[in-house]
């Protein structure tokens, strides 16, 4: 059966994750991370995408991106992945794939859900117990969105801009949000929608996506194996 295309609408943010093949590292040192971010910075304007938040972990990457047109995120990830893998393989004397299949992405509602994804992404190092302070993780946008580093190519989403009237007010308000850990239900919801590549948000948001795409945009429950007929049940 052919795979359905990802949900992809212009002007709507996408939460993107790409993992290393077999969950192996896709960054072996800081030079790898620096080069990935350089290539990402080149790919964004070339494909018409805006980056709002990111984190580089050892074996995967999270991005929050808004495309200017349908297909822009796919072109960005293709360009970024191709160029980074070629560089990584040359540098480390290896061949073959680096990524675990296709990247995953879900659409994100442009109200509170966007800020939840900001926090989900930038709190990743803290959840992984790599740091107690997510702003100290050099390889994420957290220090930028909390006003501790220059913006340097990161585009503030309107939901972040709505946190205050100045960048200082917004950064302070966002830091307050960041200090509030995401609850288990919110974490599970974000992961489910990302894994199933659906539309994370309010019912009205999903209804809009379904109208535009003519596809179901909600998540489906985990598959449960059917019960065996009573005649085939094992007897004690």
Q: Could you give the topology of this structure?
A:
Layout: E1 14-19, H1 30-47, E2 49-56, E3 60-67, H2 72-92, E4 104-108, H3 112-122, H4 124-127, H5 142-145, H6 158-161, H7 167-178, H8 184-196, E5 199-200, H9 203-213
Parallel strand pairs: 4-5
Antiparallel strand pairs: 1-3, 1-4, 2-3
Helix pairs in contact: 1-2
- Uncertain regions spanning at least 5 consecutive residues: 230-236
What's the number of extended β-strand segments? 5
Q: Taking all residues together, what is the mean pLDDT?
A: 92
Distance between the termini: 41 Å
Approximate helicity band: 40-55%
Helix and strand pattern: EHEEHEHHHHHHEH
Overall 3D shape: globular
Number of helices: 9
Strand content: 5-15%
Instruction: Please list the strands of the largest sheet in the order they lie side by side.
Output: 2-3-1-4-5
Description:
The structure is a single chain. By secondary structure, this protein is of the alpha+beta class. It is 42% helix and 12% strand. It is built from nine helices and five strands; from the N terminus they run βαββαβααααααβα. The protein has a five-stranded mixed beta sheet, sandwiched between helices. A hairpin with a 3-residue loop joins β2 and β3. The longest helix is centred in the middle third of the chain and has 21 residues. The radius of gyration is 19 Å and the shape is globular. The C terminus is likely disordered.
Describe the structure using short key phrases.
alpha+beta; five-stranded mixed sheet; 236 residues; disordered C terminus; 5 strands
């Amino acid at each position: 059966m052919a795979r359905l295309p990802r949900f992809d609408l212009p002007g709507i943010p996408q939460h993107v994750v790409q993992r290393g093949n077999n969950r192996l590292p896709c960054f072996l040192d800081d030079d790898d991370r620096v080069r990935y971010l350089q290539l990402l910075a080149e790919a964004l304007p070339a494909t018409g995408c805006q980056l709002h938040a990111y984190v580089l972990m050892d074996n995967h990457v999270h991005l929050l991106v808004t495309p200017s047109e349908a297909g822009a995120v796919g072109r960005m990830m293709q360009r970024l992945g191709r160029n980074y893998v070629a560089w990584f393989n040359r540098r480390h004397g290896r061949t073959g794939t680096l990524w675990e299949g296709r990247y995953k992405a879900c659409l994100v509602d442009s109200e509170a859900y966007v800020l939840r994804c900001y926090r989900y992404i930038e709190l990743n190092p803290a959840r992984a117990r790599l740091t107690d302070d997510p702003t100290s993780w050099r390889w994420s946008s957290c220090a930028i969105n909390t006003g501790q580093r220059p913006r340097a190519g990161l585009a503030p989403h309107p939901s972040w801009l709505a946190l205050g009237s100045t960048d200082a007010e917004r950064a302070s308000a966002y830091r307050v949000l960041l200090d509030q850990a995401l609850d288990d239900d919110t974490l599970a919801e974000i992961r489910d929608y990302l894994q199933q590549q659906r539309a994370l948000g309010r019912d009205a948001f999903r209804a809009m996506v379904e109208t535009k795409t003519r596809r179901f945009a909600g998540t489906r429950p985990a598959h449960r194996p059917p019960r065996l007929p009573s005649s085939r049940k094992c007897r004690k």
